[in-house]
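USER:
I wish I could look at a protein chain and see how it folds. I am handing you a single protein, as its sequence and its fold in token form. As I understand it, each token names a local backbone shape. I hope you can help me see how the letters and the tokens relate. The protein I mean follows directly.
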Amino acid sequence: MVDVNDVRGQRVARAELSKRGIDTMRADVRMMHGVLYLRGTICLMCGSEIKDLKQEMEHIAHILRQRTEIRDVVLDCSFVEADPKKPKPAASGASLR
């Protein structure tokens, strides 16, 4: 049977990440026995104002550890600063044909 605190903690973690503009579509956010595991690739949502993603994730992990449902946070993920799907701007002076 699933622990109610694990479900609640996972929901709180997903809400905090999305509130701060962090995309977890390619990441696995799981909670087992009070420990929150973040695995996979973490990137920024479009329009996010975050300068350093790794530092922001450490800050969020610190905030989540203060919750009663979450005993510890394990960040086992890679960080992607720019969205790989977003096209890069053309070089200045280049003609578009």
User: Anything to note?
Assistant: The radius of gyration is 17 Å. The mean pLDDT is 86. Strands lie at 22-23, 27-32, 35-44, 72-80. DSSP finds two helices and four strands in the chain.
